Amino acid sequence: xxxxxxxxxxxxxxxxxxxxxxxxxxxxxxxxxxxxxxxxxxxxxxxxxxxxxxxxxxxxxxxxxxxxxxxxxxxxxxxxxxxxxxxxxxxxxxxxxxxxxxxxxxxxxxxxxxxxxxxxxxxxxxxxxxxxxxxxxxxxxxxxxxxxxxxxxxxxxxxxxxxxxxxxxxxxxxxxxxxxxxxxxxxxxxxxxxxxxxxxxxxxxxxxxxxxx
Length: 213
Fold this sequence. Notes:
- The chain has 213 residues and is α/β, with parallel strands linked by helices.
- It has a single domain (11-137, 144-187), classed as P-loop containing nucleotide triphosphate hydrolases (Rossmann fold).
- 32% of the residues lie in helices and 26% in strands.
- It contains seven helices and seven strands; from the N terminus they run ββαββαβααβαβαα.
- The chain has helices at 27-36, 81-85, 100-104, 106-116, 145-155, 171-191, 203-208, and strands at residues 3-7, 10-21, 49-59, 62-71, 90-96, 127-132, 159-162.
- Strands 1, 2, 3, 4, 5, 6 and 7 form a seven-stranded mixed β-sheet that branches.
- Strand 1 (3-7) and strand 2 (10-21) form a beta hairpin.
- The longest helix has 21 residues, at 171-191.
- The two termini are 19 Å apart.
């Protein structure tokens, strides 16, 4: 979720960001590279969900704690994803640029994400598409930039990046782009917040909604 606190004019945010995609596309490697600046060939498959925290000194007035949720490739079929996705304000969907099948699965992940989490105003959360492992590319999936742009427009991605966790290509840039979008949403959301004095909570409505929406 979003927790903002003011300390001597400094704003602090906690943003939950999901990292999703098929098994073996490099989700864990992308996170380890971004958070710890390391790369290893030998990460075991993530089971369930893993967490990492990245502290970003965005500018003089803004500190961001990015909570990255690394959600395992097989979890899409489990009932837990709704719980994992809750309160997320942004996402990366990762595919392996050398394996077409992992790109074909992107659509399913995006639909799943859009069905399970939205911003407070009902819009989809900003999502960046990462074509990872481009250090291993020989031509391939990402050669047609226009096609990728069109695909992202059509599917509602805010951007796409060619990345390599191994060679450290575009990982920081992609994260900066996503944080920028999250901050835009956060600013417009806080501008449009209703006056707390005027909020009358209707308890009956709350109880009727139940646990299974």
